[in-house]
Amino acid sequence: CFERSMDVLVLLTCWYVSAWVDAVWGFEFTHTDPLDPVIEEEIKEDPDVFKTIYKQLLPFSAEDDDDARSVWVVFGENGVSAKPLVAVLSYFILRAKAKSPSLEQRLCGLQAASLYLLLLKIPGSVANKVYHQILFDTCLNMPLKCWPQDSGKKRKKDCLKSSQGDPKTGKRSKPPKKVSEEMEIDDDEDDEEQGVYFSPQDLLKLREGIVLLVRTLLRLLERFSLRDKPQSADSCVQLFTQLTNFEPVIGDLSFSQERNVDQLQSLPELSYHGLGLLCSTIHGEGDECRRRVFRKLLYVILMMKTQERSKPCLLAPSQAVCGARDQAMLFIGLVTVYSLLSRVPKSEYRVSGAQAVGKLMAKMPCQDYAAIIKWLYSYSRNNKVAFRMFALDVALVLLEQSERDVDDTVDPELAVFLPHRFLVHNIIYNHRNDVSPTVRGHALHCLAQCLELGSQNATKCVHELFSNSKYITTETLTLFKKHVSDPKTNARKSALETVMSLLKHGVISCSAENLSILSDRCRDPAVSVKKKAMQCLMDLLAALPENREVQEAWLRAVLPAVMDSESSVQEKALECLDHVVIAHIKSQGKYRDDDTSQKLAWDLLGLMCEKCQHLSRCFSKSFSVWAPQQKFTPGFVNGLLSHTEGERAAAAWLLLAKIASCSPKLNYGTVLDTWENTIRLEITMTCHILSVLGDIASNLNDDTKTRIVDDLMGWLKTFSLPLEVISSCVDTLVRFSRSDNTQDTLRFLDRFCGELVSVCESYLSAVILQEKGAENINEDLLVKHLHTLGVASLHCPSKVGKRIFLVVQSVLTPSEQPVPAEGDELPASQPLSQFKPNSMSTVVRAHAVITLGKLCLQHEELMLKYLPVFARELEVGTELAVRSNVVVVMCDLCVRYTNTVTRYIPNISACLRDKDPIVREQTLIMLTNLLQEEYVKWKGALFFRFAIVLVDPDPAIVDLCEYCLVDLLLKKSPLMFSQHFIECIFHFNSYEKHKKYNKFLQTESRFSLKGRQNQGKRFRIYRFLLKNFTDEQRFNITTKICQDILATFVDSELPLDSDGSELLADTFDILSLKEMKLTAMSGPAAGEEPQEDEMAMAKAVLQVAQKKLVSQVQKRNFVENVIPIIISLKNMLEEQHSPVLKHLMAYLQVTMQEYRSEVKELFAADEQLAAEVEYNLKRFEKEKQQQMENQLASFTFSPQRNVSFASPLSPRGTKGPAQTPKSADALR
């Protein structure tokens, strides 16, 4: 068959006169002379000869076929030339355009045009100069020219003539001249067709020829660019536009560009496919191509018919015309959707762009809708951040629409893309771990919004993600703890919003552990995250006002924020408290149980009286801010007093205790009446009533004061009160003593507090110092006497005798001295070196330590005697409560006797490595307070002991230490980390041979991190310190490390022994850390792209200039100060065959990434070293590329793949910013 086709080609091209071919090309294919009769006869014998040749040449048009390049060679071998072949084809094409062509001429012309277009697609056609614009445009006109035209009358009835008269007036308007000319032309063309009759079989053959030509043109347009051929592009658009309503379409019309041309059957489908191809960038700029296509389709939408030589005219609104209009509108919508998705709008217009896409897609049939979702899924995995962000926005908009049902028109492979489940699981949720923090945050934000949508399907899909009981506990918490600790602020805020929505809608339970994810972030380092966390808890509390767990979490988050260091966070916390609690306090008569807001306010106050009593101090801070604002009016206070009886009494007294000192005049009668009935009330409520009494003491008359003081003394002498009430009673007693006359105040305190001291002394002496006094000891009563003695002695130091000192000491250790009689002098020195065990319980001994500490605060000689005892107890003591209280006492004494106690700071700091975490935490908090107030300085080994807490086995203590160092102490001493960093390297390696560093006394082996087994701990500390360096400090520390460490080994000041090798290895590994790299030299975060706004662009330009300048300074420093030392040290290490050499080479490998092209230049003094560095760099780049490919492969998901959402926590070295730990509330 191929030989037959080649014979025909030879016949067509070999018979020609050169002048004939030149004439055809010369006329530019507008006119041809008659062809040889022999060829005409050959064509008549086989009318499908062109079609046969077409089928034989079709395989050669595939560009991926290796034989395609040889087709022109085959033509040459058989004497077939392109120029005459095109000329002969043009003859048959032009003959089909003659007047009244026969069926055979039309078919032959269509086949010749198809063959010409096929030749254009075959690779090599450009080199053989097959393309000619006029002939190409003539081929595009063939379908409509060869198809029989309708009768003139019928066509003219389709047009709504503008010359028709007004039916109301009966008048006829004068028809325009151009319209009459148009009608005459149409009539002439119709007359030409009147002599030719076409049977249905003939029309079917013509349609097949047109379909063949159109399919060939579509295959051509896939690769053949019309970018530089605007006239040909316009001709293509004109052809496809006219074919859109060539014939009716059975079923819904699909515009999917992914379908094969051979699968498209109807001419409208083929034409819209062609219009889609013409909108692609291969044929010009995107906007230009779309405007060209939309301009032509506008006439179809307006239901108008265009003519070449006349104005457009309206068509009658028939079913076919309206159907073509709807199809055109749908196609324009589809193209617009792809255009919007391909060209992401700027961030400020991204949401509106997504909404536009959603509106357009809502009008599309299921087949095209599913095809776009499939394309959107691939689009969502684009390398560009903006594309992935826009895909998430579009997915969220589509979730607001009703879910599509799968019908028969949807291909089975596309059915999976229709349900909302695909959008939620495979597009939104899959990006929760995106490499870009911006996309991660936006994905979590969209996931939260899914639960807020009106669509039940979207909510159900989110529930499915967490419905598996396997993931509902540990894995869920791990996932969200990871996201709320993200290094990027916006990602953390989005994660908080997601957690809030999941809790709000019951996707995860409102357990204390889950709620802590939100409440803990109210102590985040970033101010915006703190505010976001509080807002999320506000929204959650508004949605679940009766949930006790939510109420408690809200209190634990908002109340500590009142004492935050940032004023804006304080204001936000105060706003939350005012909005939720204070604003809903009304009088008893206006209270309603069905009022959720009022009930919530009292529930929160009730929790503060029960589970959250430790937050009372934070709550008090709020009232000191509100007091100047005159927020508490007499009406408010009287309304509060109306609740002092009944179930809300405790909460009402809590508020009264806070506002009594700053409120207008109270109704003292109500307070006093309540006091009369206060006997044996609940502890917390009693303390609040006592606080109110103390506040109003100055406004009471003498008789009332006397009665209350007598009541208080009667209570205290019973020693039956709880310890909290004892402290409140003594405090109230002291406030009743205040007067303008200082001597009166002192006499009052000496009288009443001295009486309490005397009573306590008598009881303790009887129990402890007398024989058989301790046989039937009442431990609870003994503790209350010790506590009362301690709080009362602070206010009457003159009434405290030396006998009391011995009594308290005897509680801590058995006395070996005779007990002095009353009034005798206490021996000048006691044989006491530590607290020795005795018959007293730990609880009693712990309270005795506190009482002894209070006595020391008022008596310096007693402090000097017992301070060494306290220090010794910290070293050898075995009782947890005693050691913990000793730490508190010594730190309090440091405030009172700073110079004396400072020498014992090493004893206190040694407790940072105590075996009990409670003591370690207590010590950390107390030392931080002393450092903040500058009672203690960073002297000796204190900083290094503080830093070792960063590797404490308890993660909570580690978080507390990070908060103390960064948020409290570093802000006060910005140079603290950089000043101690070099010495950290020596200290943690226990290296003492340097003449300058690590020269303080090494007494505690538990503070040593020497050895390979502790390398991870050392570097955790190094990384933390370096992470909080400024760029200037990083630059200086590099130089200082080279001079103070590396240079000392080069100059043989330090020996290169085993200890020196470990120190040197640590040094090179530190220099290789990414935390040592200047932030000005770092690019944007992984996966991030520069923004498009002007401010961001200006910032980017500034960063580039800054990076260039810093790079030059850094390079100069590296060349002048580092390279000479490195080369000398390398030679030394090679001579000794030291294992440290590999650490040196690893450092160079990391450092030289910045100077990849300058290795030989920088190491000109050591060519061998330069070669080794280059080799290592190449190997490193290869490994890095392989690692990146593996990561991308693991990130690619398929639509059917079920991906587990539980992700492991990142290692501590790469974790996000630490939050302020709960223990830090005590520091405030």
TrEMBL record:
Name any one Pfam family assigned in the record: PDS5
| Residues of the signal peptide | 1-26
Compartments reported by the entry: Nucleus
Keyword Nucleotide-binding present in the record's keywords: the answer is: no
Q: Where is the Condensin complex subunit 1 C-terminal domain?
A: 882-1046
**Which Gene Ontology terms describe the biological processes this protein takes part in?**
cell division; meiotic chromosome condensation; mitotic chromosome condensation
Q: A Gene Ontology molecular-function term? A: histone binding
Keywords for the protein's UniProt record, in alphabetical order? Cell cycle, Cell division, Coiled coil, DNA condensation, Mitosis, Nucleus, Signal
Record flagged with keyword Mitochondrion: no
From which residue to which does any coiled coil extend? Answer: 1152-1190
Q: Where is this region: Disordered?
A: 150-193, 1202-1228
Question: What Gene Ontology terms describe where this protein resides (cellular component)?
Answer: condensed chromosome, centromeric region; condensin complex; nucleus
SUPFAM superfamilies linked to this entry: ARM repeat
According to its UniProt record, where is this protein mainly located? nucleus
Feature: compositional bias, Acidic residues: 182-193
| Chain's role | Regulatory subunit of the condensin-2 complex, a complex which establishes mitotic chromosome architecture and is involved in physical rigidity of the chromatid axis.
Subunit relationships: Component of the condensin-2 complex.
Q: What is this protein called?
A: Condensin-2 complex subunit D3
The record lists the organism as Cyprinus carpio
